[in-house]
Amino acid sequence: MCGIVGYTGNQQAAPILLDGLSKLEYRGYDSAGLAVRNGDSAPVVVKTAGKLVNLIQATDGGKKLLGTCGIGHTRWATHGDPTVTNAHPHVSDEVVGVHNGIIENYSELREKLKDNGYAFYSQTDTEVIVKLVDYYYRKYKIGPIDAINRTMVRARGSYALALIFSDYPGEIYAARKESPLIIGKTEDASFLASDVPAILKYTRSVYYIENLQAARITPSTVQFFNLNGDEVFLPVKEIEWDASAAEKDGYEHFMLKEIHEQPLAVKNTLKNTDFDNIDLTNVKALDIVACGSAWHTGVAAQYIIEKLAGIPVRVELASEFRYRSLPLSKGTLVVVISQSGETADSLAALRKAKEAHLPVLGIVNVIGSSIAREADYVIHTQAGPEISVATTKAYSAQLVALYMLALKISRVNEEPYMHQLDKLPALISKVLEDKKDLQYLASRISNSSDIFFIGRGLDYAVSLEGSLKMKEISYIRSEAYPAGELKHGTISLVEDGTVVIGVLTQDDVYEKTLSNMIECKSRGAYLIALTSGQRPGLEKVADFIIRVPETESMFMASLAVIPLQLLAYYTSVYRGLDVDKPRNLAKSVTVE
Ligand code: M6R
Known about the structure:
Layout: E1 3-8, H1 13-23, E2 31-37, E3 44-49, H2 52-58, E4 69-75, E5 90-91, E6 95-103, H3 106-115, H4 125-139, H5 144-154, E7 157-165, E8 172-177, E9 182-185, E10 190-193, E11 205-208, E12 213-217, E13 222-225, E14 231-232, E15 237-238, H6 254-260, H7 262-272, E16 285-290, H8 292-309, E17 313-317, H9 318-321, E18 332-338, H10 344-355, E19 360-364, H11 370-374, E20 377-380, H12 393-410, H13 414-433, H14 436-445, E21 450-455, H15 458-474, E22 477-482, E23 499-504, H16 507-522, E24 526-532, H17 538-541, E25 544-548, H18 557-574
Parallel strand pairs: 16-17, 16-18, 18-19, 19-20, 21-22, 21-23, 23-24, 24-25
Antiparallel strand pairs: 1-4, 1-10, 2-3, 2-4, 5-6, 6-7, 7-8, 8-12, 9-10, 9-11, 11-15, 12-13, 13-14
Helix pairs in contact: 3-4, 4-5, 7-12, 7-13, 8-12, 8-15, 12-13, 13-18, 14-18, 15-18
Bound molecules: 5-amino-5-deoxy-1-O-phosphono-D-mannitol.
C-alpha cells in the first residue's frame, strides 16, 4: 500500500526522501511524489507516474529540489487512476500533504468543501483530506494540531497523514488512524515513515504514534497530541533490526535473500518463542484468523493442533471472519497471524474477537505494529524485516511458532518434538544447497498457462502456499486443490501438458494422493512429485521428482515449502518479471 516518508533536519531532504521511498517500494505503488521546502519558501512539489526511477530522474536524484524539510510518497491507487495528477503530494492554499489509507466519506466532504469554494483537480480522497485540514486551519484561524484534530473528527476511514503548513517552516505534522506511521529521531533530525526499513539507515530510535493522535515534528523535537489537543508523551523504542536487513546483500532479489534467511529465521523463532505469559489453561477451541500466506500457516496448524491436542480448530480468512455471524464461544482462543501486523482485515478480526471478550494471541513479525499492540498476548516471529512482497521467511517463522503453540496447547512431552524442531534450520539449509534441478524445472514450466498443486492434509496446506507463491510472482494461473477434490470438477481442466505438482510428504495419505496424480497423468498431465524418503515406484509415475530430507511428519511443511518458493522464484526470473514487486500487489494490505 502507499508509502510515506518525511524528513526535517540540516541535510538536503530530497535525497533522503528518495532513499526512504526506495526502501518502501516493496509495499507496492504505481506513482510517486515529493514536496520539499527551502526555509520559508513554498514547498516545491514534483510527481511522476510509474516507477520511482522516474521521480529520481525528474529531480536529478533530488538535486533539483533544495531544502531541508520535506515529505514523500509512493501511491498505490485506490481512488482514481495511477496518474501524475492523482499522485501525492496534494496541495491546498496553506497545506501540502500525503496520505495512506482510505477516507470513506470523502464524497460528502468534497461536496462540503466545494460549497466553500474549494476546487478539486484529482479524483483522490487525499486531496479532500488535505483541503479539509486547510479549511479548518483557515476558517477558525487555529494551529495545525487543532486543524488536524477537527479533520480527524470529521473523516471516516483509515489514514496516515503527513502535512506541511506554509506558516510553519521546518516542521512536519502527522496523524494516524489505523494506517501505520512511525517517527524516527536522531540528535539533529526527525524522520517519518510508513515502515521501519525507510529510516533504518539513519536511526533505530522510533516512536509509534497511536491511533487518533497527531504529531508535530521539528529537527530537534517530536511532540504528540491527543484528539483534545493535549500533549501526550510516548516512549521511544529501539529497533533491533540490522540496517543491512533492508539491503539485498549481493542477492539479485530480496526474495532470494529472504529464502536463504529462513534457517536463521526459524532458529531465532524457536529460540525466542515462549509461552510463559500466555494463559492456555482453559483453552477449549481455537479460531485461527489471517490472510494470504499467513492463513496458509493456520491451515497447516489446524491439522497439527487437532491431531496433537484433540481440540476443535477453525481457520478463517480474516476478510470473511470479520463480516460473518460466527458463533464465538467462551473458552476459544483467537489466534491472529500476520507478518506486518497491519493487515486491515486481520486487525478488524482481532477487534471483533475482543468485542466478543475472547482472548487474542497475535503471532506477528513487526514489533510495535497494530496487531502486536492490540492483541492480549503476542508471539513475535523472529524473521527480521521482510521486504519482498512474496513472503517466505515470515511464513517459515510463523509455521514454527505455530508448531510450538501446538505442543504447548496439547501438553505433550515436548522434548522429542523440540529435538526435531532444533534440526529444522540445518535441514532447510540442506534443501537450499542444491538449486540446479529447480532452475531446470522452472525453465521447463515457465511457459505453462496453468499449474495445479495437489495434496492431502498437511500436503494440501503446503500446496496452498506453493500455488500462491507461483501465481503472485510468475503470473501463471495456479490453483491448489485437496487431491481428493479434483474428481469433483477440476480435473476437467487437466489436458495434455497441464502441469500438476503433487505434494507427497505424509505417509498416511501418500497412496491416495499418488492415485489422484495418476488420474491426472492419464489425462496427459506433466507430473511433478515433491516428496521425502523412499518412495518405490514413484519414478515410473512422476515426470520429475523433487526430494527433501525427512523430519517428523507434522513438521514436513517447513521443508516441503522451500523448493516451491524457489520454483516460483526461478519461474518469475525466467519470465523476466519484477520478482520483489509483483504487479497490483502490496506488501501490507492496510485497506479492505
Ligand atoms: O502481513 P500479513 O502477514 O498480514 O499479510 C497477509 C497477506 O497479505 C500476505 O501473506 C500475502 O498473501 C503475501 N503476499 C503472500 O506472499
